[in-house]
């Protein structure tokens, strides 16, 4: 954009944008549908529904961007923010949002004839915004990464961002209708894309790097207060606990795949081993071992059994790599599942009750605190899933701490060296086999920890919970979010666990959507949604090398 000559934005384009904002807001105060049961009641004139309030919020954001292009904000934010690109991105997103509103209302009410004029007026306004943004000129801006605000202002920006994330997540999860949830996600995506195109998210990334401890503390505070925003909803808290278990397990796999570069396709077996240890040592009537130690002892035993399995599978197989290692670990995962189905007292020792598994696992009770009871805090009821959520929050904090410390340590640098070039790492004196084995053991240990809590939270374990597809989803969470990162894996785990639960009417197409998403990610953002700074530099260096090679070939052809 530095080569784009700075010009004054056309009055016509700016006026069209303002007219679009006015139409979007006016249309949002009118009825979008005559049927109150569609999309959370959008039929009342002068009293906007939830999705209409989102549209009004979007119009206000567009107006702020227009005022940054030309208006009172030009001389301040206008020198730093690329408001035109942000407006273009948001114009596309808002138009798509309104089109999907028409589709949703038409589908739910048997035809577009049932869409009220307010929705069409808002659609016309969003189209005017899009046209206006394409007519506005680009400008040369200052480097936003060099913009430094006072320390208190940066901390305030982190606090406001995390608060917005908390209330945005609470609102989206509170939407029971699938179409409303999809539209909410589209709107969020439009806002995030607009902020990214303006450079705001890049600036926030630099702020986060300068205030890592504040950001980490704010993230855990937001996670802690999340159950208090759900009004005692067990459905959403059940999804949240599954996300945390999935994320903790994926974080362990991230050590194996993201740091050490070892492709493991049977990792779900380590989660299952921890769960089975907890189930066999529980007070369930179907438990096969009549010894019931305290839960902290069970946690350590489950994690150590999983780590031992990691050492057992790693010792003979880590001499191979690449596709061969993937095939061996895939076989291990299937061996574990079949073994758990055969330890029924007939085909083997009576340990797991075979295919029936171990049901009826009682609720956890630590120090007199029963995780199955409902507790009231500040007038808000917290059910059993909320109780397990807080325990899992402690677990994920421990797992993140272990991953971060290992990543920044000498061992972590050794893993990265092995991932990049195993032969070169070995030539430099790195204990390749020992570090590979350590990666398998630590990753399995963390998965085993999560498994011991999962057994009590699910109240049952069975072999069919630990199929290959679960290992594939764990690996996909890492690839989708960003290998070797913490935030990326958490984001990937949330996406892959949350969306299938909230979009159950798409269940028949889940694998199709899942595969298409991964293909698009590999094509347009191979480093993942949250790229590791180290891996991002690698991709940029590869792109620069490719550009130099192409330029050299063109020069040779010209000669």
What does this entry look like structurally?
This protein is mostly helical and 559 residues long. It is 67% helix and 2% strand. The strands form 2 sheets. Strands 1-2 form a two-stranded antiparallel ribbon. A hairpin with a 2-residue loop joins strand 1 and strand 2. Helix 1 packs antiparallel against helix 4, helix 3 runs antiparallel to helix 6 and helix 9 runs parallel beside helix 13. The protein starts with 10 loop residues before the first helix and ends with a helix.
How many angstroms separate the termini? 31 Å
Which residues form runs of ≥5 with pLDDT under 50? 1-7
Rounded radius of gyration (Å):
27 Å
Could you tell me the mean pLDDT?
Answer: 84
Extended strand count: 4
Shape descriptor reads globular
| Major pleated sheet | 2 strands, antiparallel
Q: Work out the helicity level.
A: 55-70%
* Largest sheet: spatial strand order: 1-2
Order of helices and strands: HHHHHHHHHHHHEEEEHHHHHHHH
The number of distinct helices, counting runs of at least 4 residues, comes to 20
Structural class label: mainly alpha
- The percentage of residues in β strands lies in under 5%
Features:
single chain; 559 residues; mainly alpha; two-stranded antiparallel ribbon; two-stranded antiparallel sheet; 20 helices; 2% strand
């Amino acid at each position: 954009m530095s080569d784009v000559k700075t010009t004054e934005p056309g009055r016509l384009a700016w006026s069209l944008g303002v007219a679009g904002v006015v139409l979007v807001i006016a249309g949002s105060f009118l009825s979008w549908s005559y049927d109150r049961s569609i999309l959370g009641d959008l039929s009342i004139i002068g009293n906007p529904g939830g999705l209409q309030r989102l549209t009004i919020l979007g119009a206000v954001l567009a107006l702020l961007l227009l005022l940054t292009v030309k208006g009172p904000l030009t001389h301040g934010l206008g020198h730093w923010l690329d408001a035109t690109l942000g407006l273009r991105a948001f114009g596309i997103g808002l138009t798509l949002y309104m089109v999907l509103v028409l589709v949703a209302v038409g589908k739910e009410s048997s035809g577009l004839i049932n869409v009220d004029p307010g929705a069409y007026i808002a659609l016309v306004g969003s189209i005017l915004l899009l046209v206006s943004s394409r007519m506005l000129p680009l400008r040369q801006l200052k480097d936003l990464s060099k913009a430094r605000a006072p320390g208190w202002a940066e901390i305030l920006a982190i606090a406001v961002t995390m608060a917005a994330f908390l209330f945005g997540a609470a609102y989206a999860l509170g939407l029971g209708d699938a179409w409303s949830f999809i539209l909410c996600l589209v709107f969020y995506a439009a806002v995030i894309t607009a902020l990214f195109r303006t450079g705001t998210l890049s600036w926030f990334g630099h702020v986060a790097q300068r205030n890592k401890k504040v950001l980490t503390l704010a993230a855990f505070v937001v996670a802690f207060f999340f159950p208090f925003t759900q009004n005692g909803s067990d459905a959403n808290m059940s999804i949240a606990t599954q996300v945390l278990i999935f994320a903790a397990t994926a974080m362990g796999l991230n050590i194996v795949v993201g740091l050490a570069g070892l492709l493991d396709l049977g990792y779900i077996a380590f989660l299952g081993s921890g769960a089975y240890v907890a189930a066999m040592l529980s007070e369930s009537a179907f438990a096969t071992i009549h010894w019931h130690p305290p839960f902290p002892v069970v946690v350590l035993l489950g994690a150590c059994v999983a780590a031992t399995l990691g050492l057992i599978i790693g010792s003979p197989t880590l001499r191979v790599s690449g596709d061969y290692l993937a095939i061996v670990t895939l076989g291990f995962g299937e061996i574990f599942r079949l073994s758990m189905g055969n330890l029924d007292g007939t085909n083997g020792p009576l340990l797991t009750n075979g295919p029936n598994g171990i049901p009826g696992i009682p609720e956890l009770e630590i120090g007199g605190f029963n995780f199955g009871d409902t507790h009231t805090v500040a007038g808000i009821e917290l059910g059993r899933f909320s109780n397990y959520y807080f325990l899992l929050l402690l677990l994920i904090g421990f797992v993140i701490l272990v991953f971060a410390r290992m990543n920044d340590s000498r061992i972590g640098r050794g893993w990265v060296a092995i991932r990049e070039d195993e032969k070169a790492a070995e030539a430099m004196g790195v204990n390749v086999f020992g570090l590979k084995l350590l990666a398998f053991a630590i990753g399995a240990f963390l998965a085993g920890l999560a498994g011991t809590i999962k057994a009590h939270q699910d109240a049952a374990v069975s072999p069919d919970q630990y199929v290959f597809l679960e290992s594939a989803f764990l690996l996909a969470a890492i690839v989708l979010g960003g290998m070797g990162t913490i935030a990326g894996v958490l984001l990937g785990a949330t996406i892959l666990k949350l969306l299938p639960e909230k979009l159950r009417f798409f269940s028949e197409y889940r694998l199709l959507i899942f595969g298409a998403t991964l293909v698009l990610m590999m094509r347009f953002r191979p480093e993942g949604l949250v790229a590791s700074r180290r891996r991002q530099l690698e991709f940029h260096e590869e792109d620069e090398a490719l550009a130099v090679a192409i330029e050299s070939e063109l020069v040779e052809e010209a000669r």
